[in-house]
Amino acid sequence: QLQASGGGLVQAGGSLRLSCAASGRTFSIYRMGWFRQAPGKEREFVAAISWSGNYVDSVKGRFTVSRDNAKNTVYLQMNSLQPEDTAVYYCAARYRDSDRYDSWGQGTQVTVSS
Q: Measured on CA atoms in the order 31, 56, 65, 58, is the torsion positive or negative?
């Protein structure tokens, strides 16, 4: 189970940090990802991080993904936010026995005002 939080309303140029707390099958998580979906658009990949090891990927240079294994939590630090970053942000888990993201959080709304 994944619980995303930290969304909200922020002015352009501001920052937010999203959190995703994992529970249940955490021992078998291979990778955690962040995705977003803006109104009228398809869901898109934002960032990912391995549950162990050093793999990190982000399509936005302004966004940084990190994790705290002791808390079973991953974070998405978003800086210099722009109105086009407005979307519902989802975290997802990919497990060791799968090649796709199988478990999804409920999403957290990020709104950036101009």
A: negative
